[in-house]
Amino acid sequence: MSDDIAPAGPVGSAGAGVADRAAPGRASSADELVIAGLVPLSTCDWPDHLVATAFLQGCPWDCTYCHNPDLIDPRRAGTVAWSQVRELLDRRQGRLDGVVFSGGEPTRQAGLADAMRDVRARGFAVGLHTSGAYPRRLRELLPLVDWVGIDIKAPRGRYAAITGVAASEDLAFASLRLVLDAGVAVQVRTTVDPTSLDEDDVADLSATLRAMGVRDHVLQEMRTTGVRPQYLAALRRTAARTPPAPRRADPDPAAPALPSAEALPPAEALPPAEAPPSADDEGLR
Ligand code: SF4
């Protein structure tokens, strides 16, 4: 997701004021994509599809619970060339259903449309993971996309505490509206982050999404691998001060249980940040 690899705000800071600045500009080639990693075969990135997944470098947001913070910095160099993705697809004709563009935030990069056209020209379907940070570019991409997995992180009023960016909720909900209006198949995903959301927030969000016309909303359990130590510490503090919550009268049966303090790794056992998959890891070199 790096349009020209210009930093979209100070990495690791709130990044307040980051707007939808990725408006389509000059045409950009797939060969300019900055790709942090490529998984040649995934069964979980697009439901019921066998795909290759490309992780694009750079994200304008800085979510507290980001489990791959190494993908945030848009100045970081890529490790996989688009030509390697092309070669992979040519070798996997008939054995893959499609390619998922993930990140980071893949819509940040101007070369994404060209890459999607390339994928379609080779006979593969296109999936997109996005948090909806760039709705103007997303609108241009939607005709090239067969399926979208979009993160809607919180109900309105709760977004900035997660992403560090005041405008993020407007951008995310605008993007979701675009996807729904385009009629593209979509799964909405929400990470249930106990440091920023409670059960009422999750219920409110689910109701909002249903009212918008969302039919597929998945609640994801927050991961503790790969996240920053500060986030693990915040989780521990939240778990320590949160008494067992009385259940709502109408609990969402799909809602993951909030973790107890005992379930969290101790401070001295914090896992290292998860490195994105590389071409070497995946045997592409
Ligand atoms: S939007 Fe995704 S990639 Fe970006 S900081 Fe948040 S969790 Fe990480």
UniProtKB/TrEMBL annotation:
Keyword Oxidoreductase included in the entry's annotation: no
Gene3D superfamilies tied to this protein: Aldolase class I
Bias type Low complexity, positions: 1-19, 255-278
Domain Radical SAM core: 46-253
Keyword entries, A-Z: 4Fe-4S, Iron, Iron-sulfur, Metal-binding, S-adenosyl-L-methionine
Region Disordered, residue ranges: 1-21, 238-285
Cofactor: [4Fe-4S] cluster
PROSITE patterns reported for this sequence: RADICAL_SAM
GO molecular function, one term: metal ion binding
The organism's place on the tree of life at top rank: Bacteria
Annotated InterPro entries: Aldolase_TIM, NrdG2, Organic_radical-activating, rSAM, rSAM_sf
Database matches in Pfam families: Radical_SAM
Protein's UniProt name: Radical SAM core domain-containing protein
